[in-house]
Amino acid sequence: MALICSISHEVPEHPVVSPVSSHVFERRLIEKYIAENGVDPINGEAVSEDQLIDIKVQQVVKPRPPTATSIPAILKLLQDEWDACMLHSFTLRQQLQTARQELSHALYQHDAACRVIARLTKEATAAREALATLKPQAAPGIVPAAAAMPAGGAIPGGIPEPMEAAEPGPVGMTEDIIQKLQEKANLLTAERKKRGKKVPEDLVPSDDIRAYRPLASHPGLHSASVPGILALDMQAADTSKVLTGGADKNAVVFNKDTEQVTAILKGHTKKVNNVIYHPTEDVVFTSSPDTTIRIWITPSSSCSQVIRAHDAPVTGLSLHATGDYLLSCSEDRHWAFSDIATGRVLTKVSDDSIGHALTCAQFHPDGLIFGTGTGDSVIKIWDLKERTNVATFPGHSGPITALSFSENGYYLATAADDAVVKLWDLRKLKNFKNITLDERHEVKSLAFDQSGTYLAVAGTDLRIYLCKQWQELKVFSDHTDMTTGVKFGQHASFIASSSMDRSLKFYGLQ
């Protein structure tokens, strides 16, 4: 029930009660009345402000004033509400436009940041490649000092400049050298007979070869400006040490296990087209169309010898089983036999029977004979001691591109620009098997594994064959350009290949 002021007869905002008359009043009205008259307005008795008693009630909602009860008054209220809504809507539109501008600016900044990040990433990649080209990465266990040369040819360390032979011409093969070659051949033949036809126990079986998959790819070993890896080799004693020769005029030593470049060898003035890793020492050999052969000490990345055996581009390079001598061939139609320790050419023979360049050369595992390929499709077998041609294998069409002797010493695999791999029996001196590839299929490299069980054919793609049955086990087509080199790891536990796509790839079991 609402309280009513006894003076105004309206609901009081601050009701009080007079203890004299017990009536309810509005405080401000009764205070004014007492201030003027000093008595209660109802019974006229004296009363003071201090005697008034506050009444605590809930806030009273006043009824709508009479002006809001007519239609014009209601229309006026609606108009005011509409105006307020329009003003609020205008303010929201202004805020929306500001937010859109801020969002547009933020998106522009994000796009600019993405462009900067992309550019910096590209520059960082180029810088890494340049760094890998200019400075080899430090690898564990590598000491920057000159390593020892193979037996019979120690080279003193710390040589700042490569040495060259003083004599301009061949110095000849002495009786001591010939005896050394014969003793090494007798030893290797005895070891081969001792092993017999027994396959190494640790050799990966052919079924596992079929299951090989790409394990790793390394495209940053050579310069991206002059793409292409032209040659590949491994150290026989430690097949984790890989050597590549590139179109960028450099040779690179790479460790498969640590995935690090351990040496970058600079010195050739043209592309490096042949590389050899010494089987037991940290010494490598490279050749180039610049007509030179260079001997390098890998821990110090230094060139210890420069052999100038030819007057035209060097096309083939092979290391003798002793590890002390190099065989090379050239477009000048000569093959040369050089001493690694002195850098001297011991003998140089011209094949006057042909009018074409020599395209490749390879030592027989025993080291007393070797094979050369020519530009007129002929393979020739030479006697090293007598320096004479002892056999000729015709049959290919097109320049010979690759040849490889099997470890057992019985077989020779050859390839040319005719999409055919020919197998030759050196005991019977005849061709006993042809592997015919697809038309226009190119072959750039051939390699038997260390046991002579598998043959790898690299070119348009990479193919692995089982020897004796000559059955195709696996085809790898992972390179995007011509495959230029292939090598087997220890006991064929993995396969390495190089390509003109600038990458070095490894294959094995996952």
Give the secondary structure arrangement, pairings included.
Elements: E1 15-17, E2 24-26, H1 27-37, E3 53-54, H2 71-134, E4 163-164, H3 175-195, H4 206-210, E5 213-218, E6 229-234, E7 241-246, E8 250-255, E9 260-266, E10 274-277, E11 283-287, E12 293-297, E13 302-307, E14 314-319, E15 325-330, E16 334-339, E17 345-350, E18 358-363, E19 369-374, E20 379-383, E21 388-393, E22 400-405, E23 411-416, E24 420-425, E25 430-436, E26 443-448, E27 454-459, E28 462-466, E29 471-476, E30 483-488, E31 495-499, E32 504-508
Parallel strand pairs: 4-13
Antiparallel strand pairs: 1-2, 1-3, 5-32, 6-7, 7-8, 8-9, 10-11, 11-12, 12-13, 14-15, 15-16, 16-17, 18-19, 19-20, 20-21, 22-23, 23-24, 24-25, 26-27, 27-28, 28-29, 30-31, 31-32
Structural overview:
The protein is of the alpha+beta class and 510 residues long. It is 20% helix and 34% strand. The chain has four helices and 32 strands. Strands 4-13-12-11-10 form a five-stranded mixed beta sheet, with no helix packed on it. It has a four-stranded antiparallel beta sheet with strand order 5-32-31-30, with no helix packed on it. A hairpin with a 5-residue loop joins strand 26 and strand 27. It starts with 14 loop residues before the first strand and ends with a strand. Mean pLDDT is 86; it is low at 135-160.
Poorly predicted tracts of residues: 135-160
Based on CA atoms alone, the radius of gyration comes out at: 48 Å
Mean pLDDT: 86
Structural class of the helix and strand makeup? alpha+beta
Number of strands: 32
